[in-house]
Amino acid sequence: MKKESRRLVNCAALAICLVLIVLVYATLFQSNDLKLPGNEGGYRLSDSRSNLWSERINIDAVDPQEFLLRRLVRGDDRVRFESNGFSCHTDVHSEVFVANKPVRIFNKGLTVYVPHDDQPQVKRTVKPYARKEDETAMELVSPVQILHGNSTINPPPACNFTHNVTAVVFSSKGFTGNVFHELNEIIIPLFITTRHFRSRLKFVITDFELRWVRKYNRVLSHLSGYDVINPDDGSVHCFPGAVIGLKYHNNLAINITDIPGGYSMFDFKHFLKESYNLKTSHVSEIRKPVLMLISRRNSRRFLNEEDMVEMMEKLGFRVKRAEPEMMSNLDEFAEAVNTCSVMVGAHGAGLTNEIFLPTGAVMVQVVPLTLEWAATNYFGEPAKAMGLRYLEYMIEPEESSLFDAYGKDHPVINDPKSVISKGYYAHRAVYVDGQDLKINLERFKKILIEAKQILETSTPFNRRT
Ligand SMILES: *[C@@H]1O[C@H](CO)[C@@H](O)[C@H](O)[C@H]1NC(C)=O
Ligand SMILES: *[C@@H]1O[C@H](CO)[C@@H](O)[C@H](O)[C@H]1NC(C)=O
Ligand SMILES: *[C@@H]1O[C@H](CO)[C@@H](O)[C@H](O)[C@H]1NC(C)=O
Ligand SMILES: *[C@@H]1O[C@H](CO)[C@@H](O)[C@H](O)[C@H]1NC(C)=O
């Protein structure tokens, strides 16, 4: 008996000690936290940093900067990185410079100085936007000049702000304003490049677009535990290391074998779920099927949208029509999409929002004439990789406004290849920007019935969250 109670006392003492230790740590980290936002040249945006606390706990066990940076470097580049402390990798889509050395960032973020005593200064230029193959996009992106080497001749300015986590430098220009490009060329590449840092990094945004930063504030504040830095005011920021440019895999894709930390598209979806506070994980949680119809204004419009909605409602769907202006408030729109079991839309950027659909939901893409390749590669394959069921509705020539405009004997209708062979702009003007759709309701109904059957038999077997 006595032994028993002594053990109890010991246990209690131990527990009290543990609680005290946790409290002491908590206080230490808390005070560290409070210093973070806003006071180091950071750009403050209001956002609940509700998960900062849990991220901070993780940080406790985080690897040193060198290890985190090294994971971004592969193959021959790694040998170089280990001897010189930097690497510059370039492929078809992106250029990424990684420095495990103190860097100085100035000139609106467009000059990065990396000291290296033993070599004469080498200049490199990186455009930190992941669409290198697209000249039109890249023209909009300011080049970042990297000065690497001995600084005797050209000494860098003194630091205004000294940070103690890695800088990740990227541009918010390029094709921003188009949600596909925003996700494809910035948001997903940011996740690929930085998720394994577990928030211990600061974003330095060149070509700073406040609207873009506001729109994606939730993503940015869940990838970094610090405010983003807008270097436009001319101040000089010093960091212990830097990544300039973002890694890219494929259209709305994450290649699990090629990302530090082995994250997958499912991890990215889970990350979005947390960031946007989305409630529905699997489509089976939605009782009555809800269909979101993506409504377009400029081209590839549904000319008989009212009739389509009526038919959908008759089939038992609750229909939500998504107008383009609803999509600019992503925080709200992501939640709206997440409550839907089916998304229907003509090929176009709005379909990128499929990323917010719950797992097992059905994505129906309406494919205008000649846009098969783009449809499959930009939204179809990605939908499958996101755990959605993907259905494609290829229109018949009669369902295209081009049929009425040109007539059935015109090459635009009976020999599209001849138009396509005239080049990108010729093709674009006719089929991408000049085509509207009048859907054959009887034929389209079949695909919606198929969607309904998929939902009825759907079970949350592949639920990940
Ligand atoms: C750096 O460059 C200056 C001028 O070219 C030279 O005098 C100096 O020796 C160099 N320093 C080192 C460490 O190589
Ligand atoms: C980083 O800087 C903050 C203040 O800017 C400081 O409180 C913290 O201890 C530093 N952390 C490390 C790991 O040096
Ligand atoms: C940065 O520091 C320099 C020199 O120390 C100073 O002249 C300049 O005003 C500072 N800039 C900012 C934005 O604080
Ligand atoms: C994923 O990355 C690995 C390693 O870089 C590569 O071998 C593989 O082909 C990639 N897979 C896809 C689908 O791109």
TrEMBL record:
Its main location: Golgi. Residues 278-364 form the Glycosyltransferase 61 catalytic domain. Keywords: Glycoprotein, Glycosyltransferase, Transferase. The keyword Transmembrane helix does not apply. It is a single-pass type II membrane protein. Pfam families: Glyco_transf_61. InterPro entries: Glyco_transf_61_cat, Glycosyltransferase_61. This is Glycosyltransferase 61 catalytic domain-containing protein. It comes from Hibiscus sabdariffa. The lineage of its organism: Eukaryota, Viridiplantae, Streptophyta, Embryophyta, Tracheophyta.
